[in-house]
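Support reply, case 0932

Customer input (verbatim):
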Amino acid sequence: MKLGIITLLLLLPLASAYNRKVFLFPSESDTAHVRVTPKKPLNLQAFTLCMRVATELNSRRETILFAYRTEEADELNVWQENGTLSLYLRSSSDGALFALPPLSAFPTHLCTTWDSSTGATAFWVNGRRSLLKIYRRGHTVVPDGAIIVGQDPDSYLGTFDIKQSFVGEISEIQMWDSVLTAGQIALLYNNRYEAPIGNVLDWNSFQYKIVGNVVEVLE
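Our regenerated output:
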């Protein structure tokens, strides 16, 4: 009996740190999306944004992965486009673009980090960091916007383009108002129980509203 208890305790840290729901976007759409409510306003001088993504869309197609828009502007967007992964802060044309392996039908753990004090920006793919680029040094991400998953809003809460919509699976969306360490991102990638919990978005206490043809699947 003691041996069985010890074995169970050893296995526990290897189990998933997150509930196993997945948002499935089955087809192109100009309506289907998930509206997300953060735990606190996105008033950010730094951030780490992570998610697990699977898609068969061509990497050269403009595909929105995460959108945060205020009434004035596209405040924080993450894309796969033109063979790159890219981050845009308060711009739809001047972004930080990274030539990285394309997303695929196998889930990819993807993180984006940015620090206003230095402008240091990177993507993390399955626990591995890209090179750093300097982007939007001194910038601040402002609050009072809307977080949309699955669509790129060209106006506040609306005006979606079907050819930019996401098709595939997204899960484990997490966000912090700081830049996580390499060790912390490795814990997230490996789904360890000791992985940090997002203080802006936390997948285990996610508040959201599904609109249109998005299927919530429990793995």
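We compared this against your earlier run and they match. Two observations from our side: Residues 1-15 have pLDDT under 50 and may be disordered. The helical segments are 2-11, 182-189. Please reopen the case if you see a mismatch on your end.
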